[in-house]
Fold this protein.
Amino acid sequence: MIGIDILEIERIKNIADDEKKLKKIFTKNEIKYFNNFENKYEHICGFFCAKEAVKKALDCPKNLTFLDIEILHTKSGKPYVKLNEKIDIKNQIKISISHSKTVATAVCLVI
């Protein structure tokens, strides 16, 4: 299965500037990652797109929340998905995230 999402960065700023909203969508590790950047909006938007792409690729199991999907990075900077243990998925999940100055996008492939 494949999932893709695209979003204008401007549309995510209301979430990015509200810590309560951020904590409903992103894990502590993800928020810590965002805070490493001067312009965090493009990263927040990219992660949001990645989580949406994962949900689409997995055909959105009812028990899958945004907080069950964590976007992390390898030492080399490659993004990868870590799912909460309660989600029983044996398939590999591959992800790619990209952004420009105005939009972010992500693609997820479940194999």
In short: The beta strands are 2-8, 69-73, 79-83, 93-99, 103-110. The domain at 8-110 is CATH 3.90.470.20 (Ribosomal Protein L22; Chain A). The longest strand covers residues 103-110.
